[in-house]
Specification:
By secondary structure, the protein is an alpha/beta fold. It is about 40% helix and about 15% strand. It has helices at about 5-15, 15-25, 45-55, 70-85, 125-135, 150-155, 185-190, 195-200, 210-215, 220-230, 235-250, 265-270, 310-324, and strands spanning about 30-35, 60-65, 90-95, 120, 140-145, 165-170, 205-210, 280-285, 295, 300-310.
């Protein structure tokens, strides 16, 4: 990986302040955002939430827990928001499919969701619909899990597709897991192909990061160490969750890691702020019953972050955002 010039590092460190200054100079306000997430399975959702909360261009209005044990997931969301001092953000509980918990359960074992200082919506799908329909400007819907909530929302109120744009971490177009040369049935699609097909045929503008780009993001060496050593309370909470997540997979895992896992979902948050570091290609896609996002002339045109212009620069941007 290439080295980064000192001036580039200065810019990366100052990115949040620069973003605010540019927005103010151009008379722009932050983009209203809803996050729909299966946080509590793969740890990358927790990284993505932390990144979102540290991105001044994005005005987070609502977080909704998605797929599986949505009560457990909502507890993680609420506790992270409390740590971030962002209890102005409402928490929605999505469609609950089981009560199995997950790898980050020890972090919220004593957390009482009813005591969250902000709003908790038991009907997360309804809260999502209301937030979109009542917004004075279009909402950016960032989805980083399977999509049963969004399917249900589209069925209950199809007009949400007229008032929102969709950004997702979904699919595999030309490359699969680990950058392999053939596509894979990516988990967020494979977990519920019917729901994903509903979302991929709705009439809203769509941008996705498939495995082609998001499947290559991993912090190692000094980049990871900078995040791991950061004393920001929200980043400390992220690292605590990462430790629980690793221990759940391997009880003998060391307390301190030397690298991140693959940070798939962070790229979806990035796409809500910028496309500068990726190559975007509009590709017609269909969702197959086996969970593939296949190129098909009859499919919906989707803006796909199909390759990186500069992956090391993205890693630097990510570290800069998380640690400042």
């Amino acid at each position: 990986m290439r080295s980064v010039a000192p001036m580039t590092l200065i810019v990366l460190v100052a990115l949040p302040l620069l973003a605010l200054a540019v927005m103010a100079a151009e008379g722009k306000s932050a983009t209203p955002v809803i996050l729909d997430t299966d946080i509590g399975d793969d740890i990358d959702d927790t990284w993505a939430l932390t990144l979102l909360l540290k991105s001044p261009e994005l005005d987070l209005k609502l977080v909704v827990s998605d797929y599986g044990d949505t009560e457990y997931r909502a507890k993680i969301l609420a506790k992270m928001l409390e740590v971030a001092k962002r209890t102005d953000v409402a928490v929605g509980i999505g469609i609950r499919q089981n009560s199995h918990g997950g790898r980050q359960a020890p972090w919220v074992k004593d957390y009482d969701l009813s005591r969250y200082p902000g709003k908790v919506h038991r009907d997360g799908v309804g809260a999502l619909i209301r937030t979109i329909m009542e917004s004075a400007e279009p909402i950016t819907l960032i989805c980083i899990g399977p999509l049963p909530n969004i399917k249900a929302a589209l069925e209950r109120e199809p007009r949400i597709a007229e008032k929102a744009r969709f950004i997702g971490m979904h699919g595999s177009v030309r490359k699969g897991y680990g950058g392999k040369a053939t596509p894979d049935p990516e988990w967020n699609v494979r977990a519920d192909p019917v729901a994903c097909r509903k979302v991929f045929t709705a009439p809203w503008p769509m941008t996705i990061t498939p495995l082609d780009t998001c499947g290559l993001v991993r912090l190692t060496g000094t980049k990871y160490a900078k995040v791991a050593r950061c004393n920001d309370p929200l980043v400390r909470a992220l690292m605590e969750n990462y430790r629980y997540w690793r221990k759940a997979q391997d009880k003998n895992a060391p307390d301190e890691a030397d690298a991140s896992s693959i940070l798939f979902d962070t790229v979806a948050v990035y796409l809500a702020t910028s496309h500068h570091l990726v190559n975007i290609e509009r590709i017609p896609l269909v969702v197959t019953d086996k969970g593939f996002t296949a190129i098909d002339p009859k499919g919906k045109p989707v803006d796909c972050a199909i390759s990186w212009k500069d992956l090391p620069a993205y890693e630097d941007w990510l570290v800069g955002r998380l640690t400042h």
